[in-house]
Design goal:
With about 240 residues, the chain is of the alpha/beta class. Helices cover about 40% and strands about 20% of the residues. Helix 2 runs parallel beside helix 3 and helix 6 packs across helix 8. The longest helix has 20 residues. The termini are far apart.
């Protein structure tokens, strides 16, 4: 059991949305801090430790994407973005900047609470799980993965990955040659694939290739299996 209630930073410029979302979160036992714009969100974030950040994309003074970028530059806290249904580009940008998940408006409170629980569960797994086989260091070709430290090195250089990027890489690398569908990866990392666009995985894979591969268009580690999903290089290669 957690020694304290999980702390959530909720940033949205609409008071009605703040009230609508914060009430069920507090009812679920979470401590919620709200912010009405991007600058206030950063100020609140700097004041204490949070276990989850929920950011609306469209906010005054500083939008949610910029807040996400600034937080992710120095912290791995899970970030959920709230995006407008018509703004597909915001979803992609949010993932590119390091967001772990996004929810498209309008959404149900049931979906929102489910996403929050999943994000907090994933974050808690980093410190609460017992060492298992998947926690052992792994070295493949010029790539080194250390789950205990959540550290990755390639060609003797450290690589900074987001929480989701690390989980995808570790899952694939532990199963060389095995093909994972997008839904399999969504379920493995988020606990289910409900409400989630499988293209989310495509964005994270592209990001991983840009960080790990010498040539993202001619990968050594992460391969696309057309019409199916992705696989990690065979160890014998």
């Amino acid at each position: 059991m957690a020694e304290r209630a999980p702390r959530i930073l909720l940033a949205d410029d609409e008071q009605s949305i703040q009230t609508l979302l914060s009430f069920p979160l507090r009812k679920d036992g979470y401590e919620v801090t709200t912010a009405a714009d991007g600058r206030e969100a950063l100020a609140r974030f700097n004041e204490g430790k949070f276990d989850l950040v929920v950011l609306d994309v469209m906010m005054p003074r500083m939008d949610g994407l910029e807040v996400c970028r600034r937080i992710r530059a120095r912290n791995t806290v899970p970030i959920i973005m709230l995006t407008a249904k018509s703004e597909e580009i915001d979803k992609v940008l949010g993932l590119e900047l390091g967001a772990d998940d996004y929810i498209t408006k309008p959404f149900s409170l049931r979906e929102f609470r489910s996403r929050v629980r999943a994000a907090l569960r994933r974050a808690g797994m980093q410190t609460q799980t017992e060492p298992e086989a998947e926690d052992q260091p792994l070295s493949v070709h010029e790539l080194e993965i250390d789950p205990a430290k959540r550290a990755v090195r390639v060609r003797d250089a450290n690589v900074d990955l987001t929480f989701v990027e690390f989980e995808i890489l570790n899952a694939l690398a532990r199963n060389p040659g095995r093909v994972f569908t997008r839904d399999m990866l969504l379920t493995r990392i988020w606990g289910d694939s409900a409400y989630r666009d499988p293209r989310t995985i495509d964005v994270h894979i592209r990001h991983l290739r840009e960080k790990l591969e010498t040539d993202a268009k001619d990968p050594e580690y992460l391969f696309t299996v057309r019409g199916v999903g992705y696989r990690f290089r065979d160890e014998a290669r």
